[in-house]
Amino acid sequence: MTFLGARAQYRRADSGDIAVTEDPHGIILVTLRELERSLRALAAANPGPFPASHVNRAFTAIYILQSSLDFDKGGEIAVNLFRVYEYCRLRVAEAFRREPAPRLADAADHIAGLLAAWQQIGGKA
How far apart are CA 72 and CA 11, in angstroms? Predict the structure, then answer.
């Protein structure tokens, strides 16, 4: 999936106010920010009912982030990022299935750490 395709898909997910950017770094930044926002909203709604819009947004953001990874160039970093995104996907799936205590705040904290790191490397990329 290209970054343009990812951006278009995210727009179709009823994402609200998202800054439009052509920069690949900026697209990932916006996607991480929206994923953290949705995970926090889902954590706040725990034990439910979980807002369907945030479930959809979280799944879409995770898909964009996972599909943007380049395992050939990224090596171990790409593998570890995929694992973090997969952890988040599983937590959102638990919430979607209305399972008790899906650890959404923990998932949001992981994404917040990635977001902070991504913001720091922004000027260097």
Answer: 28
